[in-house]
Structures are given as C-alpha cells and as structure tokens.
Amino acid sequence: MKNKLALLSFAQRCRNILASNWEGHLHTIKADAKGSKGEIHTSKVIYMFHKGRPHLLVPEGDLHNTNTIIDERGSLSICSNVPGQLIALLRSLKKLPARVALTGDVMLVKDKKVQTVLDSLNKSVSREHEIASRFSHSVSAILTSAGPNCKSRSEGLQNILNQIHLYNLYKFDIGSCAYIDGSGGTHDVDLEDFEEPKSELLLPFSAKLIDGINRSQTRRRALMLFCLEYFNTIARDAVMLSIDQNGFDVLARVPQNLNNTGVVQQHQYHWKEFRFDFKEAATDIEAFCRMLVELEEEAFEHVKSYSGLG
Description:
CATH superfamily of the largest domain: Electron Transport, Fmn-binding Protein, Chain A
InterPro entries: Haem_oxidase_HugZ-like_sf, Split_barrel_FMN-bd
Mean pLDDT: 91
CATH class of the largest domain: Mainly Beta
Protein name: DUF2470 domain-containing protein
Radius of gyration: 22 Å
Helix content: 25-40%
Structural class: alpha+beta
Number of helices: 9
Organism: Carex littledalei
Oligomer: single chain
Order of helices and strands: HEEEHEHEHHHEEHHEEEH
Low-confidence stretches: none
C-alpha cells in the first residue's frame, strides 16, 4: 500500500459514481399549457453517456415528457451504487450514499439520432457481458455471492434494452455539477474539471463486488486487519464502503473515547471511514481483486513477523 494516501478529487469521485450506476432521479418543473407551475416532479430514469454528454431514458408515460416541452430546465441526482445491506447500515448511522447533483437542460433527441445512441449503449452492455464471461473462478465466486437484488451495470441495463420501445431518449446539457458527501456536505465541481465516465472494466461491477466482499466474514476480518496494520486501530467490525481504480474505502467500528489513562472505555465504539490506496492503479476487476489479496497477504505476513507467529 502507498505510504502516503492520495485523496480523490471531487471530480474523480463524481466520475466514479457515474461509472458505477445507471439509474438516477430526474427533477423537472411541473407544467401545463398555461406555463410553469413551479412545483417539482421527480422520478427514476436511466442514464448513459454518449459523446461526453448524459443521455436519459424516460418512460413514455412519465410527466417529464410534458414538463420539458414547456420548461427544459432539470436536475439529475445519481447516488453511489451501494448494495442493500450497506444502505441499511448507513441509514442507521444517519448517513446517505454519496451522490452527484447535476443541473442543466433536458432536450428530446431527434429520431435520426436515437438509434446511434442506443447502438452505442448496446455495444457497451455487450462488452461488459463479454468481460464478465471471462472472469476467473475466484472473481466469479465473489460476484455470485452477492445478494440476489444486487446487479452489475450491464445486468441492469439489459432489462431496459429488452423493453426500450417503452422509453423516450433525452440529452442532458450540464450547467453545473456538485459532489454531495454522506453527511450532506456539498462540493461544487468546476465543469472544466468534470470527467465523463470512460469505458470501464471495474466500476460497472462495483456493487456486486462490494456486496460479495461484505457477505464474507473472512474478507471482513481482512478489512479489520488492514485497520490494525495501516492505521494502528483495532476494529470490532469492518465493511467495504466503495471501490475505485486507486483503492477502496472501508467503514470500520473502532474505539471512540479514551479515559484519562488512555484505555478504551467499555462499549465506546463508533463507525469511521478509512481510505486504502494501491501501489498502482487497478485497470480492471481482476487486477483489483489481485491487489486486494496481495494487500491481505502483506498485512498478514507483517503481523506474523512482529507477533512471533512467523
């Protein structure tokens, strides 16, 4: 692991969230023939990026189709793709998944250009399916141990493509971007720094990978070992919170308060985030899992060396 941890920029965090998910919530201003009413309509939509710009799939019967004829202004909120069990833990801590907030104009894509965008989406989904078919046994084992409701990006989008005739396609011209952390803090991102998600071999599978790791007690004990080895902190429990090419974030239950003698008081534990960075970037899910195992082995060998077990 790197000796000095590198912090991800807010633009990078936005890119990672956008690459891992395919669903967002679109907000438009309710309108009728008399003009804008000022009320907000919100519903879930599907998104993808094409030529650097978000494109949205909106169900045919959704009010967004009417609202955007009168007023093109809209906003799009996309959460970090956090699996169900982890969501429950975050809610118990009164935290929310980190998310990206975009504002801009929502415009219907003309018929001639629709097929071009959909062809691009089809190619992307097919490529991810092909990549998944070549996963090693060890990686497949982690992914298949994820919960039944936990999907990869390609699995989620394939369901949409099977009924694409039920959707209208819109492009979203971004006017502003912000990263909102789990505590609700808002961090504006300069559009010059905004990074669209490129073709990815890791993040589209992140939710299944995180859930698979968190459902394994052996993997969770390894995360606890990381806290001891790299932060000199004894964790009672730990879960994987997020992943990216540079490393991963862990949420661990660690000692909170010390008495005057420096001893932890009974039952004084809280959940705290820790960041772990790899020595080099993980270009795909196979590389990520390999580096994670190497980190586990490195930490275990170090513990053995100073504990007298080696």
